[in-house]
Amino acid sequence: MSEERIVYLKLISDAQKAGARQIPACQIIGINKRTLQRWLVPKNRSDGRLEDCHYPANKLSKLERQRVLKIANATEYADLPPNKIVPKLADTGQYIASETSFYLNCRNA
Q1: Would you list the DSSP string of 16-46?
Q2: Which terminus of the chain is more solvent-facing, meaning fewer CB atoms within 10 Å of its CB: N or C?
Q3: Burial of residue 26 (number of CB atoms within 10 Å: 0-12, 13-18, 19+)
Q4: Domain ranges in the chain?
């Protein structure tokens, strides 16, 4: 990192500790707030676009997915789309998964 950057980072850090906001501090020095944010990113951080795909925390487990497939393939529901299956199950007091989860898991089966 260049000496100039180190000085800028120290000046902005000192200004923020004294109560200044980041954007005005950057404007006074003459750099964009995004430039400052890029300077603060660790050099060893990889490009996030190249990392493995992240899965949502609420992704169905294998057991839940099997249950969705079993219900969707049952003779009572086999000819119905997810937007008909989920309300029918709800009428019986059952919630297995959302319509979207039914659609996505049955489509990829």
Answers
A1: HHTT--HHHHHHHHT--HHHHHHHHS-TTPP
A2: N
A3: buried
A4: 3-44, 62-107
